[in-house]
Specification:
- The complex is a heterotrimer.
- Chain A has 2 domains: about 70 residues, Winged helix-like DNA-binding domain superfamily/Winged helix DNA-binding domain (Arc Repressor Mutant, subunit A, Orthogonal Bundle); about 50 residues, no CATH class.
- Helices cover about 60% and strands about 10% of the residues of chain A.
- Chain A contains 5 helices and 3 strands, in the order βαααββαα.
- In chain A, strands 2-3 form a two-stranded antiparallel sheet.
- In chain A, β2 and β3 form a beta hairpin.
- Chain A starts with a strand and ends with a helix.
- In chain B, strands 1-2 form a two-stranded parallel sheet.
- Chain B has one domain.
- The longest helix of chain B is centred in the first third of the chain and has 39 residues.
- By secondary structure, chain B is mostly helical.
- A 6-stranded mixed β-sheet of chain C has the order 6-7-8-3-9-10, sandwiched between helices. A 4-stranded antiparallel β-sheet of chain C has the order 2-1-4-5, with no helix packed on it.
- In chain C, a hairpin with a 2-residue loop joins β4 and β5.
- The longest helix of chain C has 15 residues.
- By secondary structure, chain C is an alpha/beta fold.
- Chain C folds into 2 domains: about 200 residues, Rossmann fold; about 60 residues, no CATH class.
- Classes of the chains: A mainly alpha, B mainly alpha, C alpha/beta.
- The interface between B and C is large, with 35 and 40 residues.
- β1 of chain A pairs antiparallel with β11 of chain C.
Amino acid sequence: MMEFKNNKGIFQQIADNICERVLSGEYAPGDKVQSVRKLAATLGVNQNTIMRTFIELQHNNIVENRRGVGYFVTDNAPKMIRDMRKEEFTQEILPAFIQQVKLLGITREELEPLFNQLKENEDEDK
Amino acid sequence: MAKRLTNKPNTMNNIFNIKRFGKLLKQQYHLSKKSATLSLLSLFIGYTLITLFTLMADRHFDAIQWVPLFIILCGGVALPFAAYAFPAFRNKGLTFDFILLPCSLIEKFTLNLIVRILSPWLILPLVFYVSSHLASELVLWFSPDRFIESFSFTTILQEIGSEKLPFILTLTILIALIAQSVLFAGGAVFGKKPLIKTLVILGATTAVVIFYFFSIIEWAELFKNGRVPWLIIFDNKESTAKALVVGIEIFVLITTWAYAFFRVKEKQIA
Amino acid sequence: MINIKNLSFAYKKQAPLFQDLSLTEGTGQIIGLLGKNGAGKTTLLQLIAGMLTPASGEILVNSYKSTKREASFLESIYFVPEEFTMPSIKMWDFIEAFIPFYPRFDKQLLDDLINKFELDQQKNLSKMSHGQKKKFRIAFALATRCQLIILDEPTNGLDIPSKTIFRQLVAGSLQEDQTVIISTHQVKDVETLIDKIILVDNGQVIFNQSIIDISEKYDFKIVSHLPDNVLYSELNPMGYNIVTPSIGESSEVDIELLFNAINNGKTFN
C-alpha cells in the first residue's frame, strides 16, 4: 500500500513550524515566541489549537511558560528538536528510504552524493 | 476555562430602562434623519399646494371652513402612517434585526407608539398651521380683494362654541386615536401591505358586526310594539352615558394597544 | 453557555424539524455547525437566538431563556444571518446608531477590522456589494465582543482573499469568554478555525466532538490500496481518501470526508 498523503494534525504542523524556526535560528534560546493570539491572527487558526501546540512544545521542553508573560524558547530547545527529528528519521524516513532503495534496485554509485554528505558530517563532528 | 459572567437577569432593567430608551431614540435619529427631513419637506410642500388650490376656489373663506381641510389633510397622512408602524416588519432581514436589537420589548413598542401614533398629533397640526398661513399670505398677495380668515384653533373652537364641546372633542380625539391604533395594530401583525390588509379585515369585521346587530334587533324585536331597549335609560342620565361612551373608547384603545403589543412579542422569523 | 434541553420544533404545517434534541456547550470555543441542506442549521441558530419559539423544551443561553428576548440577553449575543438588509445610510451612521447597545463594544477593534477588510466607513451601506456588507456585519459582530456570536454561512459571498482574512480576524479577535457558532456548507473555509464539530441530521445532533479529539482518534489519508482497518473510504484520482483508527500520531482532520462518512451511517465515538 502506498501512502500519498498523511498530513499531521494542525497543531502538530504549527509545532513543526516553530521548531523549524528555532533550528534556523530565527528563534534563539530565551526568545519569546509569538503569543497565542498573534499566532492565531496570522495563521487564521483557532486559539485553542495554538494553545494545544504550546502545551505539546512545553511537554517536549522546547518552550517554557512564564506565567502572564508568554512562552519562551528553552536553552536546549535546538538539541531537543534535533533529537526528536533524528528519532523521526531513523524510525520513519530511513525505513521508507531503504524500502525504496530495495524496490528500485539502487546501487552504491547512485547514492554517491549521500555518502559524500555523510562523510562531511563525520568530519564536522571531529 | 472562562470566568463566569455575572449578568444576572435584572427584572426592572429588562422591562424599561430610560437610559436605553434614550439610546433607542438616538438610534432612530441616526437611522432616519435623512428620510424624516425629506418626508417633512414634502409634507410641507404638499399641504401648502393643496391649501393654495382650496383657497383659490373660494373668494370668501371663513375660519370654520378650515375644519374639513384640516381633518382630511391630517387624517389622510396620520392614518396610513400608523398603518405602516413597525417598518422593520415589512422585510425579513429588518424583522430579524428588530427582534435582536438589545432593548426591551416595551421600549421598542413605546418608540413605535410615540412615533407612529402620538407624534403626528404634534407635527401635522404644526405643518398645517405653517402651510395654511403661508398659502393664505400668498393668495392675499396675488389678489388682495379676497377675504380669508386665517387658520386658528382658538377661533375655530370659539365659533363652534357649544357647551358640549369638551365632550365632543374628547370623543373625536379618542375615535381618531382608536382609528390610528387599529391600523397600528395592523402594522404590528402584517408584513407586506399592512394598510390594505387591515382595511380589508376591518371592512369584513364591520360587515359581520352590522349584520349580527340588525339580526339581533330583528330577532329580539327590540323596537316593536312600543318596547324600548334597555339602552334608552341612559337618555335620562346624560353624564352616565357620556362616561360610559368615553370609558368604552378608552377600553377599546387600550385593548388595541395590548393586542398589538402581544403580536409584536410573539413575532417569529418565518 | 448554551444549554438546550429536549428541544422539539416544527414549522407550521410541516413535519417536525427537531425532536427531543439536547445539547450543552461551554464557553471559549468556535463551533462548526454542519448538516445537509434542510437539516435545520439555520433554524437551530434562530432558536438559540430566541427568534423562534420551540414547540417544547428549553433553550438557555448564559442562563437566559432565549425566548424571553430580555434586553440583557440580547446585548450578549450577535447574529449575522446569511441574508440581511442594510438601511440606506452611511456605514459611519450605522456604527453610531448601534454601538451604544453593546456594553462591551470595542470601537478600536472595529476600526481595525474594517481596515483589514478594506471597507470604507464613508460609504453608503446600500451601495456596497453583498460581500462588502457581509464583511462589515462580521467585523461589527466581532467588535461587539458579545459572549455569543452566531455566524450563519459567513463565507458565502466572500472572495478568496477575504476568506483568509475572515479566518485571521475571527481567530485573532476572540476573548476567552466568547463562543462562536459558525454554520456552513463551505467546510474548507473554516477548517482551521473551528475547534468543535456539531453535526445535525434528522432532528438530532448526530455528532459532537472536538477537532483535537478527532485528529487523535482517527487518521485521514490518501492511499493507493484500501487497508483492512479502513472505516470509510472515497474514490480519489490517486486511489482513495480514507479514515482509519489512529495509530499514535495525530492527523489533519478532513472534515468533508468525516461529514460524508457520518452521513453514510458510520458512527464515530
